[in-house]
Amino acid sequence: MSSVDGTATTLEQDTPPGPTGPEATGDPTTPTTPTHTQTQTPAQAPATSAETATRCAYPDCERPTATTDRPGRPPAYCDDPTHNRLAAYRRRRDLARRDTTPATSPDPTSGRPATHRPHATGRLRADELAGQIRTLTTDLTRSLDAFAREMASLGDVARAEAQVEAAEADAAERVAEAVARAVRAEQAARAEHTSRTEAEAVAAEAVAALDDAEQRLTTSQTAHAQAVADADAARTQAAADVAAAHADAETRIQDIRDRAAADLDRTRADADAETTRIRATADRERAALTADRDRLAAALQAAEQAAERDAAAIAELRADRDRLRDDARRERDELTRRAAAAQAETAQVRAAAADELERDRAAATDLLEQVRGEAAARLAAEQQTAAERLAALADARAEARTRAERAERQADELAAELRAARAHLLPRPTTSPE
Q1: Model pTM score
Q2: Coiled-coil regions in this chain (predicted)?
């Protein structure tokens, strides 16, 4: 009965902690742009018919459902082992992503692709959802244990075990699907954290580059735009293998930055080294984010002081500062919208989990009542049969007693007749004369 908890624990432990890829299924073709799963409302549900009820529930599969003689819910998929609830969910998610994923367009002011990132609070929501799923799993496991014990006490153990196993497998599959959603939300939060760190590093590099001459600043911005374009191309090309793609993208970005460092001073080289160190230790040292923000504020203040001393570059410096503020404001608005969407999706997942649990409990209660009724009927039939056998045995005993008494009387009569015959046949004794 502990297979449900084991399924949830295995999904959490086997999920890579990296911030790349929002899916816990390991799909190598999944982009880093988060997508929203389209939930089918009751108004969009297909009409119920005999053909739909006997057809496989896997998308685009026209084969009939598999037949089984086991008790419980009828199967919803064909005899193909790859067609199950989790595979169908992944297929529907991929089809929805193809229809809803927008193409990314570069931002003309920053030179970076305008991709949407989830809000940082998505991870907290995912943790809360995972805790609720574990609680529901524990409650369902206890209910199934009590259900199995009660059914075993009724006498039909084999049938009860088969029904419990079917219900447990269905519950484990639903819990695995819910845990996969929670893990994907957590990975999306990690991706947002890494993207924000990269954006802050790019801003720090841009401000540090303002200390150089106008020609060096133009050259560094061109090199940075080229680096971003090359990184995006490498990320798109390496989508088939996530781990290898990230390693290759990091190598290409580092090579481009090394070539650009030849035209910068020692301050730019130190900033690149600090950026690389922060990216390598971002997951283990999150407290360094506050220090990075303080350093960024100090760099901005130094850039403003340098702009005041340099009358020729003050206009361009102010324009860059305004552009950075606009980008931050747009990103904040986008993150707020993503947070609202994440909260709505969490509420939908929670409601779906509650509905499924209620349906499972109702089905278990109905099945228990049915088994109790069958056991009571079988017990009444056995009691009636035993009563009939006892009555027949009592009749047989009475008849045997009557026969024994009749045989005893006949034996007494025969003994009396035998004594009379002997007395009649034996000669009488004669008296001798005196």
Answers
A1: 0.19
A2: 157-216, 286-424
> How far apart are the C-alpha atoms of 182 and 184, rounded to whole Å?
5
Distance CA 100, CA 77 (A): 27
Radius of gyration of the chain (CA): 42
Q: Which amino acid is at 181?
A: R
pLDDT at 8: 41
pLDDT at residue 55, rounded to an integer = 87
pLDDT of residue 121: 64
DSSP 106: B
pLDDT value, residue 112:
45
Contacts of 280-284 with C-beta under 8 Å, sequence gap 24+, read 282/193, 282/194, 282/197, 283/17, 283/19, 283/190
Q: Is 76 helix (H, G, I), strand (E, B) or coil?
A: coil
pLDDT for the residue 249: 55
What gap in Å lies between CA 126 and CA 244, rounded to an integer?
A: 27
β-sheet bridge partners, residue 64: 55
Residue 100 CA: distances (Å) to CA of 33, 237, 240, 309, 373 = 11, 21, 21, 50, 52
The residues, ordered by sequence, that sit 6+ positions from 196 with a Cβ below 8 Å of its Cβ are 117, 120
Asked if residue 11 lies in contact with residue 182, where contact means CB atoms within 8 angstroms, the answer is no
Scan for tokens 């079917």, then name that residue. 166
The reported pLDDT for the residue numbered 243 is 60
Q: Supply the pLDDT for residue 176.
A: 75
CA-to-CA distance for 197 and 226, rounded, in angstroms? 20
Token pair listed for 254: 């580092």
DSSP-assigned letter for residue 433 = P
Q: Which candidate, 43, 136, 92, places its Cα nearest to that of 355?
A: 136
Torsion of the alpha carbons at 213, 219, 223 and 228, rounded to the nearest 10: 70
Measured CA to CA in angstroms, residue 302 lies from 38, 155, 320 at distances of: 48, 83, 14
| Residue of 350, 385, 378, 7 lying closest to 173 (CA atoms) | 7
Q: What is the DSSP letter of 261?
A: G
pLDDT at 338: 85
3-class SS of residue 119: coil
Q: What's the CA gap between 19 and 246, in Å, rounded? A: 11
The number of residues in the chain equals 434
Q: Which residues, in sequence order, are CB contacts of 241 under 8 Å at separation 6+?
A: 28
Furthest C-alpha separation in the chain: 190
Helices (H), 68-156: 85-100, 122-154
